[in-house]
């Protein structure tokens, strides 16, 4: 699966030399086009001039002309200005001065140094909201906010592509705006020093030969381009305690496993990571089987009452810039793995076409992707598709999921033992362990494909509140491993309570010996702490259990009150 889907290239000084694109460069562009990549030209030239000098515009899916102000589609010859036309008074003022050369496009006004002083004076005198952009002696006047980056953004929106999945080539200062936004920035050999310094890769060859060199590297060794640019497109997860060095989540290191003790803060850590990925304009798709990510800023499909509509959800995933949460709470616990198995391949097909979503999250991964479902489920967990798996039982994950993992984050003071479990499961040597487990606000970071030992890191909190999703616990269907079972002192019963509402209902109906056995034995408290993940509720129920002088009716009433105070289910939306 290829990460980079398009080339965005400047014209003069990059693919063209003295206004001409040579045959070898055209052949390289044709090779890239035949490989299924998109081509976008981003130039300061006005369109009539470009049509005159470049006979092979048909190779390009979009052309951004006038330094970002005009979008042109060669296949249809459609022109779309991306800004207002130049003010008549401004053009008249420049012509009244006899300014030469002077060119007026659909949006741009262009001249050459040293005319910038007179241009700036006219802008000030007329009180206009215009900016001056320089390019190797050229002076281009455009509305504020319009440049090659904004123009490329409009072209990519047309094509449904993210800038993260674009290789950009350029040579001059006005190219920096769009090169910096792209997944990999390539400066050709003749580029200005400032452009070379800002680029991820600098070609040996100049101009068109340099572009051809970059294309050859891309098609023959794409990981080299990803590696060169990855630090610009990684996000900081935390800092190592020993040296305060930043620890980064990289899209080229495979999937991420977040694991640890139940109730240890896995969802909180995952939400913080998701926020940082979203802030960096990565598109995200979340498979949320229990409604834990409602606080994350995404378009959500499905709820406790409504199963996910696959068609609507996948349409949203296709939309550029849309983060999507698939809340599977409306499907039965038994059906959720099948929902994942049906939706996951479709999401991967979208990624194969557009390069996004860039990251996928699968919560409760031990249930959604259990061992034994590897064959025939249609899920191809390619290591090049970064996925965040969250589970308390990593050793029960499908082998395909385990094989894709490159990074492990462990949460909870007692989580270190999981490294040995994972080492055996992954058939990798067990590394040296930190001296202690992670405290609150910490995690263990393990690059399990690298040589470094696991390290304690400090992790940040999400900016938004990780809200409790009361309906999930009050009315939803928890799996058997998360449900409470009333068994009684002789283990003669097996009455399942798959949510808090059922827990209260069954608790009112079971015999006194069974109820008090579980209460006094700490079973209620333990279930609420580990499965419901509510320490406050568990503490309150433990206080009730400690008061063994209360009548049974009052005891049941206090437990019910503690639950209902926190978990009164919201009204069903119309």
Automatic annotation (TrEMBL):
Q: Name one Pfam family in it.
A: Hydrolase_3
This entry's Gene Ontology molecular function terms read: magnesium ion binding; phosphatase activity
> Which segments constitute the AAA+ ATPase domain?
252-416
Classification via InterPro entries: AAA+_ATPase, HAD-like_sf, HAD_sf, HerA_central, P-loop_NTPase
* Cellular component, GO, one term: cytosol
Which superkingdom, per the lineage? Answer: Bacteria
Q: What is this protein called?
A: HAD family phosphatase
Tell me the organism: Lichenibacterium ramalinae
């Amino acid at each position: 699966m290829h990460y980079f889907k398009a080339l965005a290239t400047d014209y003069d000084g990059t693919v063209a030399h003295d206004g001409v694109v040579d045959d070898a460069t055209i052949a390289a562009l044709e090779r890239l086009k035949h490989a299924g990549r998109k081509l976008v030209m981003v130039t300061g030239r006005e369109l009539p001039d470009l049509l005159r000098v470049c006979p092979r515009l048909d190779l390009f899916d979009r052309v951004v002309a006038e330094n970002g102000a005009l979008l042109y589609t060669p296949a249809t010859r459609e022109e779309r200005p991306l800004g207002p036309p130049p003010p008549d008074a401004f053009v008249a003022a420049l012509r009244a001065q006899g300014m030469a050369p002077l060119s007026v496009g659909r949006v741009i006004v262009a001249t050459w140094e040293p005319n910038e002083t007179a241009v700036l004076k006219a802008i000030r005198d007329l009180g206009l909201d215009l900016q001056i952009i320089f390019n190797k002696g050229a002076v281009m006047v455009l509305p504020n906010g319009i440049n090659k980056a904004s123009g490329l953004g409009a072209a990519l929106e047309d094509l449904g592509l993210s800038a993260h999945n674009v290789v950009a080539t350029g040579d001059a200062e006005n190219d920096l705006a769009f090169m910096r936004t792209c997944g990999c920035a390539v400066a050709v050999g003749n580029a200005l020093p400032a452009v070379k310094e800002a680029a991820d890769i600098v070609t040996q060859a100049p101009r068109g030969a340099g572009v051809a060199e970059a294309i050859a590297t891309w098609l023959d060794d794409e990981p080299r381009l990803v590696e060169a640019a990855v630090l610009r497109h990684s996000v900081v997860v935390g800092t190592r305690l020993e040296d305060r060095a930043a620890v980064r989540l990289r899209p080229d290191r495979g999937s991420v496993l977040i694991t640890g003790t139940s109730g240890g803060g896995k969802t909180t850590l995952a939400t913080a990571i998701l926020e940082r990925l979203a802030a960096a304009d990565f598109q995200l798709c979340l498979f949320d089987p229990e409604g834990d990510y409602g606080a994350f800023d995404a378009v959500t499909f499905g709820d406790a009452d409504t199963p996910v509509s696959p068609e609507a959800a996948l349409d949203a995933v296709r939309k550029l810039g849309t983060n999507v949460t698939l809340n599977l709470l409306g499907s039965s616990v038994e059906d959720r793995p099948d929902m994942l198995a049906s939706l996951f391949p479709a999401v991967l097909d979208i990624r194969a076409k557009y390069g996004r979503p860039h990251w996928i999250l699968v919560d409760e991964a031990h249930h959604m992707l259990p061992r034994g479902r590897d064959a025939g489920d249609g899920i191809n967990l390619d290591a090049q598709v970064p996925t965040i798996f969250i589970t308390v039982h990593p050793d029960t994950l499908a082998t395909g999921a385990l094989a894709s993992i490159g990074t492990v984050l462990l949460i909870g003071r007692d989580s270190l033992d999981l490294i040995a479990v994972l080492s055996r499961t992954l058939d990798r040597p067990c590394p040296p362990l930190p001296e202690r487990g992670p405290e609150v606000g910490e995690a263990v970071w393990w690059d399990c494909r690298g040589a470094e030992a696991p390290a304690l890191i400090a992790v940040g909190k999400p900016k938004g509140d990780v809200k409790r999703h009361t309906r999930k616990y009050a009315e939803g269907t928890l799996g058997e491993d998360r449900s409470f079972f009333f068994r009684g002192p002789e283990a003669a019963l097996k009455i399942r309570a798959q949510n808090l509402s059922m827990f209260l209902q069954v608790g009112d109906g079971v015999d006194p010996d069974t109820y008090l056995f579980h209460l006094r034995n700490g079973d209620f408290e333990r279930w609420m702490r580990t499965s419901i993940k509510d320490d406050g509720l568990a503490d309150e129920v433990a206080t009730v259990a400690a008061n063994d002088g209360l009548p049974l009716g009052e005891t049941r009433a206090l437990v019910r009150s503690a639950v209902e105070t926190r978990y009164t289910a919201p009204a069903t939306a119309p």
